[in-house]
Amino acid sequence: MTYQQIDHVGIAVTDLDSGIARYQELLGVSPSVRKRMEKDGIEAAMLDLGSTHVELIAPIGPESAISGFLEKRGEGMHHVAYRVDDIRAALAQLRGQGARLLDEEPRVGVMGHLVAFIHPKSAGGVLTELVEVHP
C-alpha cells in the first residue's frame, strides 16, 4: 500500500463564512470548492495550497458530529487526511492490522473522491481520513 502525501487537514469551525474569511486573510486563498453534505450534517470549503488543501468544516445542525466536536473541543484541527492509491486495499490492510475503522467501505467526500475514516484510537489519538483521488 502506498501513502502518497497528506491530502488535507480538516479544521472544524462554528461558522463557515467566518472561517473562510479568517483563512482568506491568514493564507490569502479563496475556496476552490464549497459543498453542503446533508448526509454528514456538514458544510465544507476546500482551500487549495499547492497539492494539499485545508478543509474548513462547519455543522449544519445540532445533530452533526462536528457540533459535538465543537462543543467538546472548540474550533481547531479535526482530522488529517492521507492520499492513497487504492483505498480498498488500504482499508483491508488496516483491518488486517486490527485498526478500528469508522468506515468499513469508502464513500464519496467533499471533493468527489473516495474517502474513509480511521478511529483516533487506532491512529495515535488523531482522526485519520484516507483519500483516493479520482481525476
Report what the structure shows.
This protein is of the alpha+beta class. The chain has helices at residues 16-27, 65-73, 87-96, and strands at residues 3-12, 31-37, 42-49, 52-59, 76-84, 107-108, 114-118, 128-132. The protein has an eight-stranded mixed beta sheet with strand order 2-3-4-1-5-8-7-6.
- Overall pLDDT confidence: 94
Topology, number of strands: 8
Helix content: 10-25%
Please list the strands of the largest sheet in the order they lie side by side. Answer: 2-3-4-1-5-8-7-6
The low-confidence runs, each spanning 5 or more residues with pLDDT under 50, are none
Note the overall shape.
Answer: globular
Q: Give the biggest beta sheet.
A: 8 strands, mixed
Distance between the termini: 20 Å
Alpha-beta content class: alpha+beta
Order of helices and strands: EHEEEHEHEEE
Q: What share of the residues does DSSP label as strand, in percent? A: 35-45%
Separate helix tally: 3
Mind telling me the C-alpha Rg? 15 Å
